[in-house]
Predict the 3D structure of the following.
Amino acid sequence: MIHRAVLAGLLLAAQEALACGYCVEDKVAMVYDHSVIVRALNKRHEVVFLAIEGSLAVSTRLQRELERSIESTPGVDRRSARVSLTGASLSFAYDPARAPLGSILRSLDKNLGAKQIRTTLLRIVSENPGGPVTKAAPGRAGS
Amino acid sequence: MKITFAPALPVLFLALAACSPGTPPDRYDLSKMDLKPAPAKLSNERHTGPFASGGSLNMGAELKPLDPSPIKEVRLDTTHKIIEIAPGVNFSAWTFGDTVPGPTIRARVGDKVRFSMTNRSDEPVPGVQIAAAPMMHSMDFHAAMVSPQDKYRSIAPGQTIEFEFTLNYPGIFMYHCGTPMILEHIASGMYGAVIVDPREGYPTKVDREYVIVQSEFYAKPDPGKRKIGGAPLYVLDGDRLRASQPTYTVFNGVHNGMVKKPLATKPGERVRLFVLNVGPSKTSSFHVVGTIFDRVWIEGNPDNQFRGMQTVLLGSSNSATVEFMIPENGSYIMVDHHFANASQGAIGLISTSVKPEERELEHHNIPATATPTDPDAVAGKLAFESKCLACHSVGQGKKLGPDVLGVTRRRSDAWLARWLKEPEKMLQTDPDAIALLKEYNNIPMPNQSLSDAEIRQYLNYFHWFDAQPTGAAKAPGGK
């Protein structure tokens, strides 16, 4: 089962998301993988959920390309990328001690920019019980 | 003297209209509805104990009397568990309240539903180590008038959501999980019914009330070949789901469930059925063989009334209340008159006898006493019981056609496969086929247009029952 602090994180995130549109939880649910979250939190890593913006042709090939692109970004945990082209969202786990989220997202946008794709932050799931659990990356607006 | 009344007439009409005792108040006066529910609350306080609770919940087809409390406390937690949807078909389901369908909520117009739900999809299933991975879930009540973004948001495993709403319209309303992919969540079992009685009660009195929830399952053997107690695990077949090709269409969650356990009635009684077609993708032509619907209230609202109907057509998430008389002793057959659906299990009985009928009724299905576990044999058994029992039995003697027990010892697989594929051609040339026709009063074996895969399933089933101990595998015959 998930640690209570994580639940609190998800709750806070859900409440904050209400001002941003009706589909935030749906987008998160599309790429929510319980095993990724449990694995990440056991290592004190974090899991981030992003909305995908851009013209997407739904195909398994593109999904695999995006997952590879995400996992090749420095700081991202291997085998943690989840992409839903139908839901236009993605998630991955990362080690904040190795790479801050801001730098990961800048690298990711650079990688995905070649495919005319941008991302917008939806959620961050963190095990940090005292600190903020949802945060926007530097220079980016949270959804 | 001339008296003119004309200027006073409009005032007079208005006064009469206002005072007229014949003008009923508008039951749907929006200004009197509660349309300002409190915001939903999210917490990480996990429910423990029962997965469903509340005095207004009904766990089966038979409905309890209405709970008079104006506030209905309803708790329906989400779980992942294995359910048996047909003999030998153990399906990896997602549930509300640990049942499929979820419990039926019964309330009345004006009542407030105070709802809470913990996502317990991450809890281990007692005794079973195989269940779907934990995931986010949500609740969408069609009976409510609320902001979906507030009340119907998806919650993660371990989270609890609480919200309340007032019931403003009478009817039979679906509830379901609204988390993407919604189609998969509904097809995995996350649905149920809310029955909302009119504020002043129903205009008729009945002797029995039952709820019937029709739904589809799209199941395939687990590609990982996992097993439950030695039997194959079945999982959601996404390809069939997206193509709207169900493997089972059922009433109240079980293939032929109410054939095995008929609903009780007596001659002369008036029966009220609350019928909901969940879908998620098929319509229902709901019919009860042997009677006529005296009243039909579309969507369960007495204001939407028809009289003397034979069948009621329900799209996905449509409902109707039907009332009818039981004229005499017998078993009255509830069926989706779209018989492709009925042959997949959407069938049940309302019977004046306590025990299930021993005899077959028309071409409808009767359970066998033993069940294969091989998926092909299971499919063959279900197909045989749907299509063949009118003319054949398994181990119970001749009918219009031969008893098929022992058929794999009497005939080769190649002969049987050809016989099932093109009986009309064999009747022209094959001596054994011609002899059978003569023995059975020149009643020919019909061509059922079976595919090669279906024929293989039949043969697997035939081989299965021929391998059983004597008397273990019986499928009773029809008339």
Q: What stands out?
A: Chain B touches chain A through 23 residues (CB under 8 Å). The two ends of chain B are 89 Å apart (CA to CA). Chain B has twelve helices and 26 strands.
